[in-house]
Design a protein that fits this description.
This protein has 23 helices and 22 strands. It is α+β, with helices and mostly antiparallel strands. It is elongated, with a radius of gyration of 34 Å.
Length: 810
């Protein structure tokens, strides 16, 4: 009953002080809401289990090519069998590789993202269809009756209208008839949410698959009581055994990576940094509300003294004051949840597509518990100091009219600590945000090796069951390029096997210069990225020619093959000489070398992975020649236009359909969007951390303004007496400004020291700047000196207008 009376009294007190209550509740809601939004993302992405049985036991197996810095290489079919047979730590090993499937029945032609899986993969994940069945062991072997397919729930709903009679229906994909055997549950996805169908991985049983053809992603389940380090040790042991047995495995190690690390490894650190930033913001909020509580405690000094004089003990007073703080925090938490609900929607709407599980962000029981816990914690943080100081009043001073209250009782030091702490925390956040902004500007300035303006691209994957021979594939793409060239507004058009910063297949090979015997030709050959393109691809992409010439239609005619290399290949293999006219050959030793190709040109390095990744060595040959690896049936069309490239999407699609009415196009995008999307995750993290820094700076300055204003009010009599005794307004102004700026400068010094230590945590997110970037560490203090000047100058100017007569009268 006593507690209920104290709660009712707390609400009555807040109603009598509406402005104080509103400011405190909104400030708390801002901090709690921001923290809850970030925790919602952490909860959805990192804390919720993946939709597989005991997902913590799932691991990926990768080869490690230490010499070339590749720690996550896929496996070949023979290597898959080796690890299956020799592993004692894994309870089941499965494999898959991703691809595209052209569906030409049940609606318009459409390219669907699919995955070829070994028949034991879905059971290994502990999943089963909601309709139909899993794959059978015999379905991993080729059949004359066609194949079988499992549909995602989304594809079944979207393209087949949730037809309950879908089982055993025929679906034509890539020119082959597949029979639907099942539909997966709505929450199942693998390996990512883009995948909408699964078919058996027939090549698992191939006896002739080369050991050096590594396409398979391999996943396994740890046996009970087996740890990840034990599995990693075993994988390395098996790799060493294979290295002794096969030339193709020379220099190849192996490791195991947890499924969680594989899926969320790239986003875990940014989320942890954002959660830490939200925590810093929450501390600033607590410091602000503590200042408000202390200021109000000074005003309530007489009330508390009177309650103590009437017999209230200190424990009773502390409990009453803490209940009032808890009520404030809970009200702030409720408003914070409302703000978090809207914040979550904004977060999902503006998040990049390559952040996994963002669509799962929402308010669940974990988020509610977090918001409640944060509310209670903040009530302790901002309430305990005012409660302890206020609950021990000086009765003689407290019952006097006109007492200076808490300020006179030594509260000045607490106010100073709070302000210094707020500024220091704001410095850390602002420095981190500044480093990310500087890094992003450096990344935007990177030359990608091509001109993305006015270029539209789209992927065309020809089904091999329909386009059975090299001539048919070549003819289709040559006719398509020729037709697109004639469209109004098109300046150049070409096709490529892989798009810069985008999609496509990239083959990596070794390179040999015939007749050369220097060590770099024998040992430690770097991998070279190999691309098939059409003659006008480079002009269409706006690539820079550094030496020689581009391909022409003459190079497509029968004759010795020609090649174009990038600047990095030229500087490595032909230093201090022109490579034009020299010969090279590509291959995968010990399988052998391809034909000699004559170098006709050198182009600038093109960044095919990320802007912050160093360009690989690159060689290009004509798609029509194909060389020994064959002709790619999946190509990406690029067309440079003289106007808005989006206006050409429909005409180009019509040209594709005029050649083949069943051929879909996919991944339609402008190159400007491709470049922008490649920076989306960095931009997203930068904006969020920048928003936290802006809120921290605003709250810190509001705190400074409030404390200095309170200082002016509390010392009004002293200031008036000074002026009555002849002190000039300028000296009073300088006195207030110096005291305020001393606090700000102390906070900046502490904050810079903290930033110097903490910004190393974001080192992996930076490009072109270091965590000790002098520009950021100079500009940040200047901002945090300039902005608080306004917050301090307003109450300082008010102090100069103090009436000396009024000060002498009271």
């Amino acid at each position: 009953m006593e507690t209920l009376r104290q709660i009712r009294y707390a609400f009555r007190t807040l109603r009598r002080n509406r402005l104080y209550a509103a400011v405190s509740i909104f400030t708390l809601a801002l901090g709690i809401g921001a923290s809850t939004v970030i925790f919602s993302a952490v909860n959805a992405i990192l804390l919720r289990p993946l939709p597989y049985r005991q997902d913590g036991q799932m691991v990926y197996v990768f080869l490690r090519d230490v010499a070339h810095g590749n720690d996550r290489m896929p496996l070949s079919v023979p290597e898959l069998h080796d690890y299956r047979q020799q592993s004692q730590t894994l309870d089941g090993v499965a494999a898959y590789y991703e691809g595209n499937f052209n569906i030409t029945t049940h609606g318009q032609p459409e390219q669907i993202a699919g995955t070829r899986v070994s028949v034991n993969l879905i059971p290994l994940l502990g999943m089963k269809p909601v309709l139909g069945r899993n794959f059978l062991p015999e379905e991993e072997f080729p059949s004359q009756q066609g194949g079988v397919v499992l549909l995602s729930h989304r594809l079944w709903t979207r393209r087949f209208n949730s037809n309950p009679d879908i089982l055993n229906q025929a679906v034509t994909m890539n020119g082959v008839t597949y029979r639907v055997v099942g539909v997966m549950s709505p929450d199942f996805y693998f390996p990512d949410r883009d995948t909408e169908l699964w078919v058996p991985l027939l090549m698992v049983n191939s006896k002739n698959s080369p050991r050096s053809t590594r396409l398979l992603h391999v996943i396994g389940r740890l046996k009970p009581d087996v740890t990840l380090p034990q599995a990693q040790t075993e994988m390395a042991t098996i790799a060493a055994r294979l290295e002794q047995s096969y030339n193709e495995n020379k220099g190849m190690g192996a490791t195991a990576v947890s499924l969680q690390d594989y899926v969320f490894g790239d986003i875990r650190l940014p989320l942890q940094i954002l959660l830490g930033a939200a925590g810093f913001l929450l501390l600033i909020v607590c410091a602000n509300v503590t200042s408000l509580q202390l200021a109000r405690a000074a005003i309530r000094g007489k009330e508390v003294a009177l309650r103590a004089a009437l017999g209230a003990n200190r424990a009773h007073l502390i409990r009453q004051l803490m209940i009032e703080s808890l009520v404030l925090a809970l009200l702030g938490g409720v408003l914070g949840l409302i703000l978090a609900f809207g914040g979550n929607r904004l977060l999902v709407a503006f998040s990049p597509d390559n952040v996994p599980r963002m669509d799962e962000i929402g308010i669940d029981y974990r988020v509610l518990v977090f918001a409640l816990a944060v509310s209670v914690l903040t009530s302790l943080l901002f309430g305990i100091i005012p409660a302890l100081r206020t609950s021990k009043p000086d009765l003689q001073e407290g019952l006097k009219e006109g007492t200076q209250g808490l300020w006179a009782l030594g509260g000045r030091r607490i106010f100073k600590v709070l302000i210094v702490s707020e500024v220091a925390l704001a410095v850390v956040l602002l420095t981190g945000a500044g480093l990310l902004v500087r890094s992003f500007r450096q990344l935007r300035a990177v030359n990608p090796g091509f001109d993305p303006e006015n270029v539209v691209t789209m992927q065309i994957a020809l089904p091999l069951a329909k386009y059975r021979g090299k001539p048919q594939i070549i003819t289709f793409f040559e006719q398509l390029v020729e037709r697109v060239r004639t469209l109004p507004g098109v300046k150049y058009a070409g096709v490529t096997q892989s798009l810069p910063l985008g999609s496509g297949d990239t083959y990596y090979m070794s390179l040999d210069v015939p007749g050369r015997t220097d060590p770099q030709q024998r040992d430690g050959r770097p991998f070279v990225a190999y691309f098939q393109i059409s003659p006008d691809y480079f002009p269409a992409m706006g690539a820079s020619l550094l030496d020689g010439r581009f391909f022409t239609d003459e190079d497509s005619k029968p004759g010795p093959p020609t090649t174009i290399i990038n600047e990095k290949v030229a500087s490595f293999y032909f230093p201090n000489e022109s490579p034009i006219g020299k010969s090279i050959r590509a291959g995968s030793p010990p399988d052998g070398w391809g034909p000699e190709m004559t170098i006709i040109g050198v182009v600038a390095d093109i960044r095919f992975e990320e802007l912050d990744h160093s360009p690989a060595m690159q060689i290009y040959s004509l798609h029509s020649k194909g060389l020994d690896i064959g002709v790619s049936n999946t190509m990406i069309l690029a067309a440079r236009t003289s106007s808005d490239p989006a206006t050409l999407i429909a005409p180009i699609r019509e040209q594709v359909w005029s050649l083949d009415k069943d051929q879909p196009v996919a991944k339609v995008a402008t190159m400007e969007n491709v470049v922008s999307d490649s920076l989306a995750r960095r931009r997203f993290i930068m904006i969020l951390l920048g928003a936290f820094a802006a809120m921290a700076l605003t709250l810190a300055n509001l705190g400074i303004y409030g404390v200095i204003s309170y200082f002016v009010v509390q010392r009004g009599r002293e200031i008036g007496i000074r002026m009555a005794l002849g002190a000039e307004r300028r000296s009073v102004l300088m006195m207030v400004m110096k005291q305020g700026m001393a606090l700000v400068l102390s906070g900046i010094a502490i904050g810079l020291a903290g930033a110097y230590l903490l910004t190393r945590l974001i080192a992996s997110l930076l490009y072109g700047v270091t965590t000790r970037d002098p520009v950021t560490f100079i500009v940040t203090p200047l901002i945090l000196v300039a902005v608080p000047l306004l917050a301090i100058s307003i109450p300082a100017l008010k102090a100069t207008k103090e009436d000396p007569l009024r000060a002498l009268r009271y």
